[in-house]
Amino acid sequence: MTSEPTKTPTMIECHSCGAGAPLREHFCPQCTNILQLSRHGDYFSYFGLPRQLQLDPQELEKRFRDLSRQFHPDFFYNGPATLKLASLERSSYLNDAYRVLKNTAARAEYLLGLEGLSPLKAEATAASKVAVPASLLEEVFAFNEELDEIREARESGAPHGALVERLERARAPIVLKQDEHEHQVEALCAQWDADHSRATLEALRECLLERHYLTNLLATIDREAASLASA
Amino acid sequence: MAYSDKVIDHYENPRNVGSLSKEDANVGTGLVGAPECGDVMKLQVKVNPVTGVIDDAKFKTFGCGSAIASSSLATEWLKGKTVEEALAIKNTDIVEELALPPVKIHCSVLAEDAIKAAIADYKAKQEKGEPALAGAQPHA
User: Fold this and answer.
1) Angle of helix B5-12 relative to helix B91-98, nearest 10 degrees?
2) Residue A82 near chain B (CB below 8 Å)
3) Using the beta-carbon criterion (under 8 Å), do A124 and B34 form an inter-chain contact?
4) A209, closest residue in chain B (CA to CA)
5) ∠ CA A128-A6-A205 to the nearest 5 degrees?
6) Is some CB atom of chain A closer than 8 A to the CB atom of B98?
7) CA–CA separation, A114 vs B86, rounded Å?
8) What is the 3-state secondary structure (H, E, C) of chain A?
9) Which residue of B31, B35, B103 is in closest CB contact with A210?
10) With an 8 Å Cβ cutoff, are B102 and A123 in contact?
């Protein structure tokens, strides 16, 4: 695992008894009270997991359930305000962390951010351009053109039955490609766990970006299918 | 965030939508994409081999309103320009003309990339020396 930068604190002060507690703890080892949520640390350490991209979903779920029970605001209902707040904050952070970590792509995107790679947001494009393979662009363009033609045919009153069939024919290769991408992402995740190399992360970032095209295309197909079904 | 009137105008009445023949030696094609938002943009120029002036420009963009407007505006500007003048078009000119907000600046970058890609494709074709254009030289 990559080492943490030295300036990041590793201890948190317990607001109940003033003792120092390691960041990975949720409850003070001295007084056993719930600790306020630290601004440091990440989703992986919160679950007591190493910063790895492959994880056992059952193990993650088990930890999620255990922690949700321990943090549950009901237990702190009559307690001091600081503990009530800590329980709320820890519960809500836990939910966010679980939502991200349980999804392969979201987990990988999150890790890219932790490792200092630019986010996958549109605004970042100008600063950090990724070269999309020309062959993929051509395919995406052709897929888009086909969908455009289907939409135009629908708008000019072509019989819907044939268009639905044509739309499903267009969907099949995209779904296939998405599956391919899924495997590629999984392979790169395994590779990162093994080598923790920057090059692997960058390949992963490109792969995740390319997925946006496929996700967009499938969303367009779903919209078109809905229009065909409703009219 | 609201689109400017100019963006809306280009979006609703895009200029020069369509395709030119990719096989034509005088046509340069640029296909670029912004994977962050799933946009793809195709921009083509048809250059007069004698004068080096862009006679025609076409585009087809699958993307947001700003991406469509940026490429539509780019084709308008390209017509009548020489290849070298076309290369001088900057994304900031597009941003200014369309009053694009900061979050949409990448759409103008995409349009500039598309212009550069189309002209690079045209020049590459010329250098290959298409027989039909044996007399035409790339314009420096």
Assistant:
1) 100
2) no
3) no
4) B35
5) 25
6) no
7) 41
8) CCCCCCCCCCEEECCCCCCEEECCCCECCCCCCECCCCCCCCHHHHCCCCCCCCCCHHHHHHHHHHHHHHHCHHHHCCCCHHHHHHHHHHHHHHHHHHHHHCCHHHHHHHHHHHCCCCCCCHHHCCCCCCCCCHHHHHHHHHHHHHHHHHHHHHHCCCCHHHHHHHHHHHHHHHHHHHHHHHHHHHHHHHHHHHHCCHHHHHHHHHHHHHHHHHHHHHHHHHHHHHHHHHC
9) B35
10) yes
Could you tell me the pTM of the whole model? 0.75
- Over residues B39-90, the pLDDT tens digits come to 899 999 999 989 999 999 999 999 888 999 999 999 999 999 999 999 999 9
A130 inside 8 A of chain B by CB: yes
* Listed residue (A37, A38, A39, A42) closest to A2, CA to CA: A42
Quick check: B31 and A130 CB within 8 A? no
B39/chain A closest Cα distance in angstroms: 8
Tokens for A110?
């999150």
Which residues of chain B have a CB within 8 Å of the CB of A213?
A: 33, 35, 38, 40
The answer to whether A210 faces chain B, any CB pair under 8 Å, is yes
- Strand-pairing partners, residue B28, are B45
pLDDT of residue B133: 47
B37 part of contact set with chain A, CB < 8 Å: yes
The answer to whether the CB atoms of B40 and A120 lie below 8 A apart is no
Quick one: pLDDT at residue A130? Answer: 61
CA distance B61 to B70: 10
Which of the residues of B are catalytic? 37, 107
